[in-house]
Structures are given as structure tokens and as C-alpha cells.
Amino acid sequence: MKKRRYRTAWLALAALLACLVTAVPQRAQAAAWTGEETEVALINTLVGRYQLNYTGGTCFFDIWTTNNTRDYETTYNDLNGPYQNSSTAALKKTEGATGIRYAFLVWETREPTAASTPVGFVTPDGRNRAISPQYAINDLRLGSLRTLYCMAADVTSLVQSAGYGNYSVYNIPRWQNGVFDALGRTARGESLGSWQLIVVEEGDSFPVRVVTMNMGAKAYIEKDFQGNLQLGSGLRTSSVGNVSGQVLFGASNSHDNDMSEVVTAYRDGGALGTVTSHVTDHGGLYRNGSLFNGREGTLRMDLSDVSGIANGADSVRLDVKNTGWTTFFFFGIAVDIAYPDFIGEQTTTVESAKKVTVSGRFTNTARTADTGIYNGNLTVTLDAGLTAVRATATAGGTTVNGTVSGNTVTFAGPAVASMMNGSSIRYTVECATGNFGRTRFDNHAGFHGYLRSEGVNTGYWIDRLWTASSFAVPKYTLTLQKGEGIEEVTGDGSYSYGERVTVKATPKRGWHWKGWTGSYVTAQQDYSFTMPAGDLTLKAEGEANTYTIRFDANGGGERETLPEMTVHYDDAVSLPDGAQAYVKYTLDGVNITQDVLSGAVTVREDGSVALPGMTPDVPQEAAEDPDGEASADRDADPVPDRHAYASVYRGWSLEEGRYGFEPQWEPVAVTVKELAGAAGVEEANGAVITLYAVWDDSPWLTAVNLYYTLEEAQSGQITEAEILSHASAADREDGSPIAPGIHEDGTSFTIPDYLPGDFTQFTASGSCTENLTVVDSMGSAYAKQITVHVVDTSPQLVRPAGTTRFITEHYYNQDYANGGLAEDSLWKTDPEYAAVIQEAFRRSREDDPVETYYFTHEQILAMQEYVDEHGIGNS
User: Fold this and answer.
1) Are 682 and 697 in contact (CB under 8 A)?
2) First to last CA, the chain
3) pLDDT attached to residue 532
């Protein structure tokens, strides 16, 4: 397929500008109209970790015939709207680039006014500016072809600010047919409006290179063209290893013939070696021989990576093979040079929330002899959240103190300035933190200086010849405070941002958990969270347990109800006096409180009681015995004192002490802490504490009437101890039994009015009352009266009221008139008696005695003698 042929006017390249020592050249003028070739240096020499990059576009393109008519016309309007004659192209970031160091806008046309007319320039941030040319060169074509113009301007600051993205150029001045120049030249050939944006990127991963570029406007007809680019004073390509680089050229070519690139390296004018780059075969913008913008036109440009450039070269020539009409616009190279190669690292260590250490080391491992840096320095750039406190370095055994300026630390001086092969340096910067919400500390270091290449001080300054960076997550301080009622908090200290943190709190005894306040508010006692970018303060809050105190009369009765008390653990309370609200009565050891309160039992002023149906106490009168002696009823129960004893209120106790004698608390001020602790409910918020009234009841005793013989009474055997040995005394509080006698604890069990003569004076049967009395340790007394009977057991002549007789079964069955028993005789009326005598009759009939006794003659005589002396009734 036949290729279409175009003739185009090309963009004139740009190059790196800022920092150039030479003045920016103005519009270059040709030497008359002789066709002399013209050329100007855009970039004399730049040294650093650099890389070339570019983009561009075409705004319009025409081809005119010899009869002044347009054979072909294309006009672009990428910006739309009022922006006629415009095109847009993207500047893409090269991998590893950290920024743009220099930038040039270059544009081409055949219109002479372009040398002074600004073009429109739109950056990715949307800002629109007019850019006037700082450079303007024409190719001084001879014959009937109009001259091509190439313009350039430094746009470094604009591109650095806007960054990567879409750039647009519009209103490139356009040549119109019918305009004759001074030599009468007019139409025929191409008319173009194209532009390029050429940048120099920097990046720490890029090799150290020298960059240089020439801008020109040279016309050729079927002739190869070339450019010679000097590396600069004292600079040479690396003497060891593979030398790589980039070549950039731009031209307007009248044909679609292939154009190939050949790179030749020289030293001291002698050729060292040649390498072939890529081939282009069509108008458009190329990278490594591949088209990335192929709009209509004869503009031909290529940026190619080149490898295998000769070692030790001080200049490079780029030859472009060409067979058509061509105007050259620019040549540029970026090639590796002999430079120091450094290895090393930097670390950032967060030691606490207040201290960070930034340290590093590096060594010059240059492969070429006597290569390094002179008049250099090491700069450590700290994160904005860090402040250098102390900065030291060690270089060649020498200690160097750093100079602090803001967040930058600079190490300089002779030991640092010259880092030739094998030299090394270590540095440490101790920092205080002022992180203020930072999520990481980013720190950087760079070694900069003038290049000494294989023994030659080149005079070229290299930024960031060696760089390193490090980061660390900052720490923040967590402060825990103990609020009221908190025993312990755990979890405070320094934590890294994003670290998982757990805080815990332990309330004091008698307190319960309330919550955390401060930086976070939560009711969780064990609380976990992720450490934020900032210091925290949390306060653990407790709340005193609440208790309900209830009062129990504990067997007593209420004159008035004691209300419940709602109290807190840290309170002090006054316990009420139970004696004012409660009463308790006992009678003969039995609780009669409710009977008294209900009126069933009446207690008189002297303590005596009246039971229902009972007359007031009256002394019992003695009955007359057959002998006319006064005696008490032998069958009467012992007589208690008929008094109701009021129990003595002592104080308050818990459940386990309610039946005790000693109270745990008297009705005075007491702390709730003491109450809750004794009750074992310090940890139980809302617990009920019941206090029981402690009483000292009167004692009581148990006793029965006693019987003694007259002989025992007269001989003094009826002692107080003897009588008490047949009774028992007890007291609820003092325990049981209370032994007879008077004791050290105040208790006693005695017969206070006992007299031995009460019994030794007896001469015959009789009785005497004794008042047994028990006293408890509180002095409460209880008495019971018993009757002690004295019986004369000596034989007595009994004078029966009737006749004692022997009766047979015959006479038993007769009536009284015929010798039988009286009708009311017990042997007839009482069934038991009747049964006994009938059994006796049966045994007599059947000769079935119960017992049989045999007496000797002597025994019978003795019995007769006894009866004669004492009577038959006392046998």
C-alpha cells in the first residue's frame, strides 16, 4: 500500500532551563538570507538523576500546490468552543520519577509573526496562559519554499505546579496563501502548526546522567543530518559496565521514507564506538520507535532508550539517515556518566511518645578510581512532627555535629565533604515529637555535592546523589486517671497509632463500675479500641454501692415502726435507738410481748401481771391437817413470781448475732462500710442489710416441790446446794445451765432467803417454802417458789376409823346386814379394787398363790413380840 506523503513544519524542542548559568538567548538571527545553518543550546550541561520525557500534538496542517490552491487541509479543535486551532496531548509520568526538574514548550509554523506572537497554553489544572517565545529560529530556506520557524519557551514553574496530565496548545500563528516574502516566495509545500512539551524528570532510582540539548533550524535536501553534543568539562561516560542513555530528535520530513538513528561516542575527537537506535517510517511522535501520536503532518520525532554506548566518552554524535527534504529542530541526549555509587539505609525508631531516633549509614562503592563528591553535605529532612534535639554523624573516624534549621539537619565540613571510594558515614538524629495527629513519621536523607569523576573535579553539583527514606508509626500517650471509688486502672502508657489497646478498671470494695469519661465515654469496664492519632486521657468512674437497711424487733414488739434507710457505701449513719421503738416481755421464760401489746396480758406498774380470768395475786392460806398443824397443799405446783419481765434492749446485730447477748452496734453513728463489710455485701449493689434488735431477756428456772424425811431435816442434810441440785437455771444470753452459786460474770443461782434452821427446827412432819432465784449477767432476776416437805417416817400407832377384818368370798357376796361390806365400799364400787379381790378369791379357791412365805418358829415369835410392842397397824 502506497504511503501518503506530507510535508510538515515541526515543533522545535525544548529543554531544561532553570539553574543555567548562561543568559537565556533571545531570538536567533540567521546570517542574511544565505541559507546558513543556525543552532542554539537549550541545555548546556545538566548532571543528576535525570530522565527525558515528552509529548505533543498538531493543531493544523495544509499542503499547497504550485497554483496556490490547497491540496489538503486539516484543522483540529480539541478544546472546542472558541478555541479554534487547538490540540491536546497527555504527559505521562515515567516509572520511578519523583518530579519534573525542567520543562520547555516548543512549537513550529511557517508564519513569520510566530517569532513574536504568544500561543495559548492550558495546563492539567485547567489554568489558561499566553506563552511568548523566548527562542525563535528559522531554517532560511532558499528557492520558492517558505521558511520554517521554531519557537521555544521555558515553562518549568507552570509544569512543576500542574504536574502530569493533559496539556493543550492553541492559536499557533497560521500561514495563509498569497503572502509573498521579500524574495517573492509564496505557496507550495506544507504549512504546519505543531507543538511539543519536553521535560527533564528526576528520580532517586534513575542513574546519574548528563543531559544536554541543542535547538536549531537547519534545512537539508536528501542529506543525512547530525548533531554533536559535548558532555561538559571533565565529564565522561562511565568507564566500567554498560552505559545506557536516551536520545531525542525532532525534524520536519517531506517524505515517508524511513529515518534511522545512529549514536557514535568520542573521546578527545576519536570515535570509540557506534550503536544503532530505532527507525521511524511515518510522521508523528514516537517513543522507542513506536508511534504514540500519529496525527497528519510531516513532523517526525522520537525519544529512544539506548544501551551499549562506549565507555569513557566525552561527546556523542547523533546521525539521522535521511533521503528527503528535512528541517532539523533539536537534538538531545541523556547518558550515564562515571559517578559514585552509594549503598546504605535509613531507619526511624519510635522509642516513646516523646522520643524518635532517625539514623542511617551509607558507603561510596564507586567502581571507578578516585570518584566521589567534594564540597558535599548530608541533609536529613525530618517529618514536620519531629524536632531535632541532637544530631551527630561519624565520618572517617571524625564526629560531626549537625546544623539544625527548622526540620532540616545538615552535616557538613571536611570529613563529610569528600566521600571518595570506600568512604562511609553514619548519622543519628535524636528527635522530640510534636506529632499533633500524625499517622506516620516520614523522614528522608540525601547526600549532595560536586562531582569528582575519575580524579577530575568536574564542577557539576549533583542533588540527591544518594537518598534514603524511612517511616515509622508514631506513638501517643494514653493517660488513665482513677476517679472516685476506683482501686486500680491498667492499660496506660505509650501506644503506636493503630495499635489495639485495652483498658481495665477495678472499683474499690463497696463501689460499683460507672463508666469511662474523657477522650472516650463508655460504660464498658474492660474497653478496647484502636489507638488514634492523638494523646488520650480516660478517667475511670465508680459509684458507691447503695444499700437498704431494715430493722427487725427480733421477738420484740413495735411501739412505732422504724423506717428503712437508703444509704451509700461511703455514708456514715446514726442507727436508731430500738429502746424507744421496741418492747419485749417474758413471763416464766416465755415471750408474752404480743399478748401484752394486744391486751391479753396486763402488766401492772410493779411488773405483776393479770392473765385472763385470774384474780389479783392473794397469798395462799394454809390448810389444817388432822393434827391441827398448818401445811401447804402437797400436790400444788411450785409458785413462780407472777411478774412480766421487760427485756433489756442492747443494740443491733446481723442475722448471725440476733440471738446473742452482745450487740455488734449500739445505737450510735456507724459507717455503712462497716455494716456492709460485716454483712458480706460490700460488692452487692442494692443489697438489703437487716439489723436485729438484741435483747437481754430475764433468766428462768425449772423446779419441783421436794420431800425429805424428818431425820434428814433434823440432821441438816437439806442444804441450799441440796435443794438447788434438784432445779435448773438458764438464760438465753448467758447460756445454760447457770450453775448454783454466785459467779464472776454476774450470774447467780441461789435461794437468797435460805436459812438452815428452817429445816433443823422440825420435830414432826411439815413443810417450808423456798424462793429459788436466778440472776443473769445484766442483773435481771427470776424467782420461783417451791414447797419442801418434811415427813416423819418413824412408826406410829394408827387408830383406824373402822375395823380391819378378814373377809371370805361368802361374806363378800352378802349385804352389809348379813356380814358383808358396805355398799359404798371401794372393794365393790371401784372396778380396780373389785378386780383385785375377785382375783384373790379365785387363787384361794384354786390354791394358786402369788407368793408363798415360810416362817420358822423363831421368826413367828419375833413378829408376835413386835406387834405386841408397836400395834398391829405398824407391822
Assistant:
1) no
2) 176
3) 95
The pairing of strands 456-472 and 441-453 is antiparallel
What is the mean predicted confidence (pLDDT) over 357-366?
A: 96
Contact between residue 400 and residue 379 where contact means Cβ atoms under 8 Å apart: no
Burial label, 803 (beta-carbon count in 10 A; 0-12, 13-18, 19+): exposed
> Distance between CA 249 and CA 220 in Å, rounded?
15
Instruction: Give dist(CA 576, CA 107) in Å, integer.
Output: 106
122 Cβ neighbours under 8 A, 6+ residues apart: 79, 88, 128, 129, 167, 168, 169, 170
Mention every residue, 6+ apart, whose C-beta is less than 8 A from residue 248: 13, 52, 54, 198, 213, 301, 302, 303, 304, 330, 331, 332, 333
Give the angle subtended at the CA of 811 by the CAs of 807 and 814, to the nearest 5°. Answer: 140
Q: Which residue has the cell 545538615?
A: 410
DSSP labels, 798-829:
---SS------HHHHTS-GGGT---TT-HHHH
Closest CA to 235 of 19, 445, 469, 460: 460
Residue 641 is classified by DSSP as -
Joined grid coordinates for residue 825: 365400799
Residues 141, 606: Cα–Cα separation, whole Å: 152
CA dihedral for 13, 17, 21, 24, sign (positive or negative)? positive
If 0-12 CB within 10 Å is exposed, 13-18 middle and 19+ buried, where does residue 347 land?
A: middle
What does the alpha-carbon distance between residue 202 and residue 744 come to, in Å, rounded to a whole number?
A: 108
Question: Cell 541559507, residue?
Answer: 35
Q: What's the per-residue H, E or C state across 216-252?
A: EEEEEECCCEEEEEECCCCCCECCCCCEEEEEEEEEE
d(CA 251, CA 224): 12
What is the full DSSP assignment across 821-847? --TT-HHHHSHHHHHHHHHHHHHHHHT
**17 near 27, Cβ under 8 Å?**
no
**Would you tell me how many other CB atoms lie within 10 Å of the CB of residue 63?**
22
pLDDT average, residue stretch 300-327: 90
Compute how many other C-beta atoms are within 10 angstroms of the C-beta atom of residue 802. Answer: 6
pLDDT for residue 525: 97
Are the CB atoms for 419 and 373 separated by under 8 Å? yes
Q: What is the pLDDT of residue 782?
A: 87
Task: Report d(CA 224, CA 338) in Å as an integer.
Answer: 31
Q: Which three cell numbers stand for residue 372?
A: 566521589
With pLDDT > 90 as the criterion, what percentage of the chain qualifies? 59
CA 559/CA 569 separation, integer angstroms: 30
pTM of the model: 0.61
328 touches 216 (CB < 8 A): yes
- Nearest Cα to Cα of residue 482 among 537, 541, 543, 570: 541
**Mean pLDDT on 860-871:** 82
Model confidence pLDDT, tens digit, residues 815-825 = 888 888 888 88
Give dist(CA 142, CA 131) in Å, integer: 30
Cell, residue 424: 562511609
The span from the CA of 9 to the CA of 299, in Å, is: 6
Higher pLDDT, 781 or 525: 525
pLDDT of 682 reads: 92
Where does the pLDDT of residue 37 fall: very low under 50, low under 70, confident under 90, or very high at 90 and above?
low
pLDDT averaged over every residue in the chain = 86
List the grid coordinates of 267.
Answer: 573521546
Do residues 13 and 199 make contact, with C-beta atoms less than 8 angstroms apart? no
> Whose CA is closest to 841, among 811, 821, 871?
811
Confidence of residue 186 (pLDDT cuts 50, 70, 90): low
500, β-bridge pairs: 530
Each residue's pLDDT tens digit, 432-471: 998 778 999 999 999 999 999 999 999 999 988 899 999 9
- What's the whole-number mean pLDDT along residues 75-86? 88
